[in-house]
Amino acid sequence: MVMVNGEQESGMVGQTITEFLKQREAPIENIVVEQNGKIVHRSEFDTTKIADNDKLELISFVGGG
């Protein structure tokens, strides 16, 4: 199991951050990912894998006026 924004989810262990975000249809260019308390740099999304018991926080930026 993996915790995503405080909720348990399954089926993503072994995926890269990029694969996970694409599956969720998340806007990769406007999102910050924290994995186990550390920010994952966008340049590392393709190589950073999700492991069992990881804690992910997804933070989206929305513009407006």
Automatic annotation (TrEMBL):
Database matches in InterPro entries: Beta-grasp_dom_sf (IPR012675), Mopterin_synth/thiamin_S_b (IPR016155), Thi_S (IPR010035), ThiS/MoaD-like (IPR003749)
SUPFAM superfamilies xrefs: MoaD/ThiS
One Pfam family hit? ThiS
NCBIfam families annotated for this entry? thiS
Name the domain of life.
Bacteria
Q: Where are the transmembrane segments?
A: none
Q: What is this protein called?
A: Thiamine biosynthesis protein ThiS
